[in-house]
Amino acid sequence: MTLATLALAGTLGLFSQPSALAAPKGAAAGSWKQVAWFWGIGTVEALACPSTSVCVAGGNAAVGLRTTDGGKRWAGEMLPYGVTELVAIACPTTSVCEAVARDSTVANEVLLRTTDGGKSWVVEKLPRGLQGDQSGSVTAAQFTSIACSSQSVCVAVGTYGDSAGEVPVAVRTTDGGARWVRKHLPGNGTVNAVSCPSRSTCEAVFRANGPGQAEVLRTTNGGANWSRKILLTGNVGLLAVSCTSNLTCMVGGYNSSATVALRTTNGGRSWTTETLQNDYEDIDSLVCRSSLVCEATSTSAAFRTTDGGKKWASTTLPNGDGEIEVVACPSTTTCVAAGNSDGLPSDPSGGTGVVLRSTNYVSKWAVGELLPVGLASLNAVACRSSACQAGDNGYATAVRTTNSGASWTYEALPGYYFGAIACPSSSTCVLVNDEYTARTTNGGRSWVGATLPTGAGDVGAIACPSTSVCEAVGQDSGLALRTTNGGRTWVSRSFPKIGSFYDFSCPSTSVCEAIGENTRTGYETALRTTNGGRSWAFQNIPDGLGGISAIACPSTSLCEAVGETSGSTVITLGAGASSNNPVAVAIRTTDGGKRWTIKTLSSTPNESVYTVVCPTKSTCEAIGEISEEAPTPYRFFAFRTTDGGTSWRSRSLPSGMTAISALACASASNCEAVGYRQGGAAILRFH
């Protein structure tokens, strides 16, 4: 594990909530496949259940959720690139859904559509002026809710801002999202929710700017015209609406002293108000399955009426101190609610996405699925035989496999985060991060923490040639650390002062090879110890290197290091071609570092290799990327040699990866790479 890749992983934003996907079956030999994806959702904000078995959901993460067994099991699916949150979902059928989503690439909401029940989503084009591409005072639309009267007719509502403040807006499609048409709404303010019981009729709840004023907006001609009616004034708000017919609608919200619901049975000409509880609390979600039966949820309670809203009964929700954001009822007996949990015995960390389910007329709710906090990224991995350990540099959490990546389990660590790791056997692993270390002797089921010597500094690399002997190096301290009792205690020794330390490898308990930058010359250098780190000697490596990032030594005489060439050095690429752009490069020694030879791995400009593993003397695997200055960032690739570095073959990696941080190979035919893809940590496997 190199410091450069630690830094790469550390720049990534954190998401929440995990679930690992099963390994794909029938993977072709000699190829890379994704075997796990630890996606994350801290709060479920959007939910639609078109049947008692099918639900589609999403929330504050770049992943969509779907279930086909009534919520017992949920699968995570990738959202289009740049989408970081699902705000609202409407599913007129079990296969067709429309969603409001937040897109970080354009800094506004977008509309998505799926026709396969949430397995895949596409971004739909909005009318001009609502796409986030307008200059001047007009900003992009911020959609809050969506409703579909059929799979071809849908309406989304929200706001956009200009010099007059927040202006309500609606868009409508009549061809399944192929074309959206903007519809003007009256007044200035915020539209919170919409319900469309038919193709022509929609009801929306609206809060006007200025003095507190909660209104309903109504159209009976497909959005061509909207009427306004004030329902509440003062410290008030209407946040949810559900219509079972063109005449009958229920809205939910609050006034200054109570949680309230209002109902019309004559198409909005008159409304009656009922108090659900004498407590100032929002109605966040509301759904009516008939003109008499409705369900509503607030922050911590569920309410039910069976007489059209005249009386409401409340039920406590089993989500601890968390909040419920949305409810859906696909039948008269089944309802699903979702949000987050806090304080549950099954969720000690708190703040976890949760799905609740009731199948007994909502007289009792149960936790259908607790979506535990996940991994934002994996930054280190080590493998021996069929066992691997991987960790996240943002959480005190590790994942492990004992079946070559077919399945992964979570383990808690006695420290802040997972830095770099080495596993000299399938049961023994030692990790380091900064001035902290931990070890396991039972394959990761439990870990024991310890403190590294004072002044160790930023320790970001470790090598363990045996279960008792490990070496680690402090990036800034100039200290080499050594343990001879499996990580229980450590001693420090002076390490040659170099400008930057990159990586090292220890093929035996006495021999280690390190790479870094020589402070005196300013060039890349190699260092070697043959006495267990008591002394180190500098070695000369070839000129023309722009950076060497990683090294692997399968024996005391053989080492392979990888990086990139210098942009100021012209490199001959073969067939008479040359380039002064950086390209991927490897250097190799077969005599313990006395002489090093250089070989370019690719003719593609701006490629660099930053991690390498050599499970045998003849086989090495390396991973790199196209630099961010290149036209296509986040392109990762693998190189492999099976003839001791004489030739290297390029291999493709699964698309969608945003970072690949570390690589480990238990054998020449089994390698694991860890990193991040949109939505959470991911593990790739070569087999």
Could you characterize what this model shows?
This protein is mostly beta strands. The chain has a domain at 380-686: Methylamine Dehydrogenase, Chain H. The chain has one helix and 58 strands. The strands form 15 sheets. The chain has a four-stranded antiparallel beta sheet with strand order 1-58-57-56. The chain has a four-stranded antiparallel beta sheet with strand order 2-3-4-5, with no helix packed on it. It has a four-stranded antiparallel beta sheet with strand order 6-7-8-9, with no helix packed on it. The model is unreliable at 1-29, 133-138, 345-350 and 568-578 (pLDDT under 50).
Keywords:
687 residues, Methylamine Dehydrogenase, Chain H, elongated, mainly beta, four-stranded antiparallel beta sheet, 58 strands
Topology of helices and strands:
Blueprint: H1 3-10, E1 32-39, E2 44-48, E3 55-59, E4 63-67, E5 75-78, E6 83-90, E7 97-103, E8 108-114, E9 122-124, E10 142-148, E11 154-162, E12 165-173, E13 181-184, E14 189-195, E15 202-208, E16 213-219, E17 227-233, E18 237-243, E19 249-254, E20 259-264, E21 272-277, E22 285-288, E23 294-297, E24 301-305, E25 313-316, E26 324-328, E27 335-341, E28 352-358, E29 366-371, E30 380-384, E31 387-391, E32 397-401, E33 409-412, E34 420-422, E35 429-433, E36 436-440, E37 448-451, E38 459-463, E39 470-474, E40 479-483, E41 491-494, E42 498-505, E43 512-518, E44 524-529, E45 537-539, E46 545-552, E47 559-565, E48 571-574, E49 577-579, E50 584-589, E51 597-600, E52 607-613, E53 620-626, E54 636-641, E55 649-652, E56 657-667, E57 670-677, E58 680-686
Antiparallel strand pairs: 1-58, 2-3, 3-4, 4-5, 6-7, 7-8, 8-9, 10-11, 11-12, 12-13, 14-15, 15-16, 16-17, 18-19, 19-20, 20-21, 22-23, 23-24, 24-25, 26-27, 27-28, 28-29, 30-31, 31-32, 32-33, 34-35, 35-36, 36-37, 38-39, 39-40, 40-41, 42-43, 43-44, 44-45, 46-47, 47-50, 48-49, 50-51, 52-53, 53-54, ...
